[in-house]
């Protein structure tokens, strides 16, 4: 394993926790050392859940390794069943406990429990969190689902959403409303808020809606093969994808599905005066494969952006993302190293980033606006308001998500341009307080002001004040590239200082 400051995905047992935490009546007995209980914080602090995940840890310590750790697991499992009275339990080991090879699955089988025990064999050192969630949900469905007759009217299951999923709660509500408008009822939503009894009833539906491929595709493929349930391949993120999804549902069910687009505002707003001046902006897209593919289509076909970079961190989606990038004339970046992502963003020099919370931090360092469109996310991406990503209302939300960072960045740029104006000067008081009494110009330190914004990145190159002031007039989304090009131009010519003339000469040189 590789230690890192940031990580896009946790180990596989965190994926299993996402499934267990999303469900009701299911308990996870995890053979793990005391320190691995940190994962609880992901749900209570980031997702703001009001209860702990349904996980019992064996929490063995170093001194226990010289004795019988297997008995610790058996005691923890028995205590969990007696205390929580679950309908079923899943059992497994964390990446640390995997090394001592206690075999939780085999130990649980010997205990003679009177509820279903679902063993998890998760390769912690070769796979990661999304695989762990996908495999856990698959094993639960495979164990609990029971063959039965279809419902009399057309129904479907919504499969894949887990705890810590990106806008999972709101996506479920939006897709449920969309399907009901088409005359299709929901049989089961799983694993989100499902019980083991609900899982048993999954085969009663006519088809499955695969809402999150990263965490539900294995189960959907097994249900298609074993219970003859087709599943949707289109994830309805964006206007075009939502229309394609509805057409796919119509093909599966044979129903005359006519979408209600009365709430869809995004197409008109994306053509309005307020957004057309943002058309053609260069965007770099990185995240999980599903959201990257969806937002690449939205960015190019629905917003009029130019996609200059595409990549994903989950290697299970590498093949489709590479194929997608080829269609866009790009080479896909498949990596879970955030430093490699930062390097790629710097080289592409985009005007906007669509990514995860990692890319949000990268954007802050590089001075590039970023919209978060994929997990991993932080607490601000679990809003109290209704904010889906799927369906037509999701398209409205995504429009705001993509446009606002650019608009706010443009506002910041305009305020910077007019900073010397008497109304917008840093020293001027707020207008509603009657505070238009700027300090004398000599009291305002221009050089100190510029140190924050355009500090030189090369130790041997110094920006002169007139060049700094001129650089500040360049729009924020290309200012970083202009600064780097000018410094490289000066370094190649052995210049120790960058004057106004040097800035203009560099501009002419790179414009050829």
How would you portray this structure in words?
45% of the residues lie in helices and 12% in strands. Helix 2 links the parallel strand 1 (26-31) and strand 2. It folds into four domains: 12-130, Nitrogenase molybdenum iron protein domain (Rossmann fold); 145-253, Nitrogenase molybdenum iron protein domain (Rossmann fold, 3-Layer(aba) Sandwich), CATH 3.40.50.1980; 266-414, 3-Layer(aba) Sandwich (Rossmann fold), CATH 3.40.50; 454-510, Helicase, Ruva Protein, domain 3 (Orthogonal Bundle), CATH 1.10.8. The protein has helices spanning 12-22, 40-46, 69-84, 104-109, 129-144, 168-181, 196-200, 213-227, 239-253, 266-270, 273-276, 289-302, 318-327, 338-348, 357-366, 391-417, 446-453, 465-471, 476-492, 500-510, and strands at residues 26-31, 55-57, 88-93, 117-119, 155-159, 185-190, 207-210, 282-287, 306-312, 333-334, 352-355, 370-372, 462-463, 497-498. It has 512 residues and is an alpha/beta fold. The model is unreliable at 434-457 (pLDDT under 50). It is built from 20 helices and 14 strands. 44% of the residues are buried. It has a five-stranded parallel sheet, with helices on both faces. A four-stranded parallel sheet has the order 2-1-3-4, sandwiched between helices. It has a three-stranded parallel sheet with strand order 6-5-7, with helices on both faces. It is globular and about 85 Å long. Helix 5 runs parallel beside helix 8.
């Amino acid at each position: 394993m590789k230690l890192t400051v940031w990580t896009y995905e946790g180990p596989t047992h965190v994926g299993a926790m996402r499934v267990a935490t999303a469900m009701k009546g299911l308990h996870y007995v995890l053979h793990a050392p005391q320190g691995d209980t940190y994962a609880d914080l992901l749900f209570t602090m980031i997702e703001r859940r009001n209860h702990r995940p349904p996980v019992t840890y064996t929490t063995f310590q170093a001194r226990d390794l010289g004795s019988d750790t297997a008995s610790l697991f058996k005691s923890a499992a028995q205590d969990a069943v007696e205390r929580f009275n679950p309908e079923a339990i899943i059992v497994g080991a964390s990446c640390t406990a995997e090394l001592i090879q206690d075999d939780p699955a085999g130990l649980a089988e010997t205990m003679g429990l009177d509820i279903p025990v679902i063993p998890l064999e998760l390769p912690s050192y070769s796979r990661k969190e999304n695989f762990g969630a996908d495999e856990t949900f698959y094993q639960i469905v495979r164990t609990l689902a029971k063959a039965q007759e279809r419902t009399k009217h057309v129904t479907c299951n919504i499969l894949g959403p887990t705890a810590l999923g990106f806008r999972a709660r709101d996506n479920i509500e939006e897709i449920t409303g969309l399907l009901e408008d088409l005359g299709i009822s929901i049989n089961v939503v799983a694993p989100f808020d499902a019980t083991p009894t609900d899982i048993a009833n999954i085969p009663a539906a006519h088809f499955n809606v695969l809402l999150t491929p990263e965490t539900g595709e294995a189960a959907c493929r097994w249900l298609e093969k074993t219970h003859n349930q087709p599943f949707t391949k289109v994830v309805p993120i964006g206007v075009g994808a939502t229309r394609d999804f509805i057409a796919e549902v119509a093909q599966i069910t044979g129903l005359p599905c006519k979408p209600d687009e009365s709430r869809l505002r995004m197409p008109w707003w994306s053509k309005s005066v307020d957004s057309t001046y943002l058309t053609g902006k260069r965007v770099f897209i990185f995240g999980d494969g599903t959201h990257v593919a969806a937002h690449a289509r939205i960015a190019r076909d629905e917003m009029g952006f130019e996609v200059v970079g595409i990549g994903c961190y989950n290697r299970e989606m590498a093949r489709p993302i590479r194929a997608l990038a080829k269609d866009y004339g790009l080479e896909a970046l498949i990596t879970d190293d955030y430093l490699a992502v930062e390097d790629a963003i710097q080289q592409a020099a985009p005007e906007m980033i669509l990514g995860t919370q990692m890319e949000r931090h990268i954007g802050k360092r590089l001075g590039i606006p970023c919209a978060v469109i994929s997990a991993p996310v932080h607490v601000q991406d679990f809003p109290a308001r209704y904010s889906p990503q799927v369906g037509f209302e999701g398209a409205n939300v995504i429009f705001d998500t993509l446009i606002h960072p650019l608009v706010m960045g443009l506002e910041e740029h305009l305020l910077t341009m007019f900073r010397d104006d008497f109304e917008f000067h840093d020293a001027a008081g707020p207008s509603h307080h009657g505070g238009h009494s700027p300090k004398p110009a000599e009291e305002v330190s221009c050089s100190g002001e510029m140190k924050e914004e355009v500090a030189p990145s090369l130790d041997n190159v110094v920006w002169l004040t007139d060049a700094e002031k001129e650089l500040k007039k360049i729009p924020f989304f290309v200012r970083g590239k202009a600064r780097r090009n000018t410094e490289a131009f000066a370094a190649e010519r052995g210049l120790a200082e960058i004057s106004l003339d040097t800035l203009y000469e560099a501009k002419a040189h790179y414009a050829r």
